[in-house]
Amino acid sequence: MNQEKESEIEALNPESPTFEFLYKKENLIKCLQCGRCTAGCPAAKVFEDYSPREIVRRAQECSEEELAKDPLIWLCGQCYTCNSRCPRNNTPASIILDARNKAFKEGWAPDKIYKNASLLFQSLESNGVTVSPELFEHDLGLLSKLVDHNKLTTLRAELGLPPLNARDIPVPTKALNEIRTILKLTCNKGGLLNDH
Amino acid sequence: MSKFGVFLCRCDGNISDSIDIDRLDKDFKRTNVVDSDQHLCSLQGQQKIKKSIRKHNLDGVVIGACSPNNHGKTFRGCMRDAGLNPYLLEITNIREQCSWVTDDRKSATKKARDLVNASLQRLEHAESLSDFRVDVTNATLVIGGGIAGITAALALAENGVKTYLVEKEPSIGGNTVRVGKVFSPHKMVEECAMCSLSPLMNDVYENHKIELLTDAEIANINGTAGHFNVDVKIKPQSVSERCTSCGECAAVCPIEVPDWWNANTRKRKAIYKPFPQAVPDRYTIDVEHCVKCGQCTKVCKSDAIVLEAEPSLRKIEVGAIVVATGHDEFDPSLRPEYGYGRFKDVVTQLELARIIGVNGPTNGELLRPSDGKPPKRIVMIQCVGSRDEKPHGLPYCSSVCCMVALKHANYITDYFPGTDITVLYTDIRAPGIYENYYRHVQEKGVKFIRGRASDVKLKGGKLYVSAEDTLRGQCLELDADLVVLSTGIKPSHGTIQVGETLGIELSDDLFVKEKHPKLEGASTNTKGIYVCGTAQGPKDITYSVLQADAAALEALSLVGQDYVLIEPLSAFVKDSCNGCGMCVRQCKNNAIKMVDRRATVDPMLCTGGGACVHVCPTAALDLHGCTEAQLEASIRGVLAGKSEKEIRNIAFLDTKIGYAAADNIGAARLRYPPSIRIISVPSVLRLAPQHIELAFQLGADGVFIGQGFEAESCGENFESVETRLNDLSKQVVQRGIDPTRLKIYRVYIPHFVGLHKRLMQFDDKIKETGEIEEELTTP
Question: B82 and B63 in contact (C-beta within 8 Å)?
Fold first, then answer.
């Protein structure tokens, strides 16, 4: 295995002392501030304050801590449209992902993030399924603008399909056990959920 | 025994402040004729050398002065004047690579003495050589008949030089024909491109010094500056000069294909005339699409059509070549988010140029393609494909698209008032006087929003462009009746093809690379081949024409000479050749051929890198200027007189880049220890494992190999040079050498500091490792 790969894996391990921003900050300096990321960003269309272009600008200037403490980073939907648009090969979504990891680990993330993470964890552990809308009904907030509960059912009906909840599909026991092992090795071992 | 002269330059203290010239003078006088001067390069200094050569009837000369890159030519001239063969000269670089880089006077003097001694040893093996004389053919070839090629051809022909103008299309004119209008920053109006171009095209046709070859491409080339043999492939000429351009043939032709001359906005027939002002003024058959139904032959009154015409090959001889192969437009369907090809009303600036062109698909009316209605709102998207590092993108600024958008915006507001135009830009680039034009268009009410559009959507039959107004931090969705994409400029297919055929160096972006970005902007890295227009990089008509004149001037000054002299530093074959052909396979320049089962080198094609020398199993190949004996003498020389516990490291650097970078280290007065001894080699491919081994056996403690970043050797690309070097390194290690003693490094001239750092690190490491172990077997 080459050295670069090793250090990458090292940095990925939340327990490692070298856990850090994976995103190559050197690349940020090439940003043209052309706004193509924001222009294509679905979240920026909903949340007026949120702009991936401005996140990049902030990432160039402020500390990792400052960026990780910025509540705006939680508005990104991680769709990576910004990645496909950027003419200079930057990825605001990855910068945000790094900042979120940092925030989550340091306890700077908003309370609801920890709450949602633990719901997600429970859901995964019990039946191996990640997200389903009703899990987060308590916390849709502005997202309710985007999520239309009935839309999926309507769409399925239009296509002649019966209503279906993702959680109704059973995850095979073998896969479920693997998921549980992954959870044990990552979330639990990293102690990310225990503190909150 | 040979009698050698040693001439030392003091360089007004640049050398003599750090090196005790008087001391060296005394030392060398024991066995040689010695003299020194404040400025050997001055006329007085040169006179001194010449007099001494004649007076003492010298057999060879060593000059200890600045880098041979500075005055090598001057001193070789001295030799010639004094009646001595110029190749019996060794220049010892005691300035850039000694006095300027060494701290203390004692070590500098010792190093200088060693280096001069090494040169004297090498001089023992020098051979008299004569330059090759190439008679210059007083004719030129211009490849590409766009505005740049036309300009260059006219400039050459008007100076009395026979000029061949080769164009791959059936008419000259190129992209200038298609742009319709050109911007005029002085008058703030758009002028007719054809009105400027057409007279020039006619001049080409009428000038008897120009032979126009249309439908033609370069098939093959060989030769050298002053005399090139070129094969030109000519497509079947189905319509002869008898054609009167009456157009009856096209009227009956049943085949319709998109018309390139109209940016595919309209159709043309398989027999067609590219455009009314075409030169040559006749119809042509597109053989790719013609079904040979014969309808046209029936109606042609002049009997001008030959359906079964054959392609032909034309052989021409020229002294110089001008490449003017132009550009292509970036294909906007590679950015599918903009909807080009999916939405009819998303067009390129070139297509818009055709739409508003009087000879275009709408006869000059601004009508959109989908429903033929006039668009009320136009959104222009800048930087489509330009300043874009995504796959297929052009990382550079295409330099003209901002002006093209301004030109069209200005024209439309003038001729179609009430049309609302918004330009979405990344940065507006309107340098120099063009800023006036930008301001003028702003004053006319065209909106400029700083933000690169993300995508174009079609909703409810209307186009919407997503963009961010980055100056206000506001997301916008602009509705548009017509979206115009300002696509970038990329090297044309022909440019890349001609680059390959001619073997000229291309830039990273595949444009033809100019020899020097400031001082030799119309020359290529191949002597005798010049470049102009967008073949060299994105530029507007103004600069294309200026560069074309510059290229023509360069070509003229070459073909105006009677002959050119070529340095005879090529490979040569000795009697021991057994005809195995290994060298023929090695040489990527096709300079070695088998004649009567014996390898023969064409010195005109040989680039003198020497990669072939050590592939020969019978040691029958050698290289003039850097023979085995000369190279070995250099290695012996720089290691001679090594005292106990002294560390010596050899740095082999290629002459073109590595050695020049080392000179830059000196010019910047960076210091390095005298333990580093530089040997210049034509290319690192000249080196074989036995040279490295010999260096270690003779006491070198480390060997550093530096190959130029841009210098490709013997026609090999960088990857294969690297593979060869890795093999070399492996073989040396296999022979029991500690791998830390051998370092291979890529040199890059502007980054000479990097070379300096690596040399220092290497020297430190070798000093740490200690002297080379004595367990090495002696040669």
Answer: no
Distance CA B307, CA B296 (A): 9
Of B426, B453, B455, the CB nearest to A32: B426
Same domain, B561 and B475: no
- State residue B778's pLDDT score: 45
**Which is nearest to B116 in space by CA: B40, B61, B54?**
B61
CA distance to partner chain A, nearest, from residue B468 (Å): 5
CATH number at residue B580: 3.30.70.20
Q: Is B476 on the interface with A (CB under 8 A)?
A: yes
- Number of domains comprising chain B: 6
pTM of the model: 0.77
What confidence tens digit (pLDDT) does each residue in B208-266 have? 999 999 999 999 998 889 999 999 999 999 999 999 999 999 999 999 999 999 999 99
Q: If you count residue pairs, one on A and one on B, with CB atoms under 8 Å apart, how many are there? A: 64
Nearest-CA distance from A143 to chain B in Å? 18
> A3-106: which CATH architecture?
Orthogonal Bundle (1.10)
Q: Where in chain A is the domain with CATH 1.10.1060.10?
A: 3-106
* Same structural domain, B648 and B502: no
Is any Cβ of chain A less than 8 angstroms from the Cβ of B35? no
- Which is more confident, A132 or B425? B425
Find the CB nearest B454 among A32, A36, A89.
A36
The answer to whether B469 contacts chain A (CB < 8 Å) is yes
- Taking alpha carbons only, the member of B461, B464, B460 closest to residue B483 is B464
Cis peptide preceding B280, ω within 30 of 0: yes
pLDDT at B272: 97
pLDDT in tens, B147-158: 999 999 999 999
For residue B593, pLDDT beyond 70: yes
In 3D space, the residue among B266, B286, B263, B262 whose CA is nearest the CA of residue B275 turns out to be B262
pLDDT at B277 over 90: yes
Do the Cβ atoms of B52 and B58 come closer than 8 Å?
yes
Q: What is the ipTM of this complex?
A: 0.77
Q: CB-CB: which of B383, B427, B468 is closest to A39? A: B468
B579: containing domain:
570-619
Tell me: do B54 and B187 sit in the same domain.
no
Of the residues B527, B543, B565, the one at which a domain ends:
B565
Contacts of B427 in chain A (CB under 8 A): 32
Assign B92 to helix, strand or coil: strand
Among B459, B490, B521, give the residue marking a domain's end: B490
Question: Which range scores top for mean pLDDT: A6-15, B190-199, B723-732?
Answer: B190-199
Cα–Cα distance list, B31 to B1, B28, B58, B120 (Å): 11, 6, 13, 11
